Amino acid sequence: MNKENCCRRCENVGAVRSYGEAAVHTVTVVCNRSMHEVWQIVLEETDRVGKVRLQAADTYLMQISEPCKPVRTGKSHVAKKVCFT
């Protein structure tokens, strides 16, 4: 095994160790709370993320709907001419 492979493996082990430590810390924090508190946090975060996504979608639609209005209007006029001629 060369020096480069050894360093890469050491970095991987360090990352795995950090992840393990974070997981143990998370479990310790969760175990110190009641299941009701844990579910309450999960529900609140889910609600918060949902609201943020809805707001982002609305903002995105507003940003793209204004520039698209002339195109939509043009298509509608063309459709009316085709249908009624």
Keywords:
single chain; 85 residues; mainly alpha; 92% helix; 0% strand; elongated
Produce a short descriptive summary.
The chain is an all-alpha fold. It is 92% helix and 0% strand.
Write the layout of secondary structure elements.
Elements: H1 3-31, H2 35-83
Quaternary organisation: single chain
**What does the main sheet amount to?**
none
- Give the number of DSSP strands: 0
Helix content: over 70%
Counting H and I runs of at least 4 residues, what is the number of helices?
2
Order of helices and strands: HH
Task: State which percent range the strand residues make up.
Answer: under 5%
Poorly predicted regions are none
Structural class: mainly alpha
Count of domain modules: 2
Query: Overall 3D geometry?
Result: elongated
Distance between the termini: 80 Å
The radius of gyration is: 27 Å
> Overall mean pLDDT score?
79
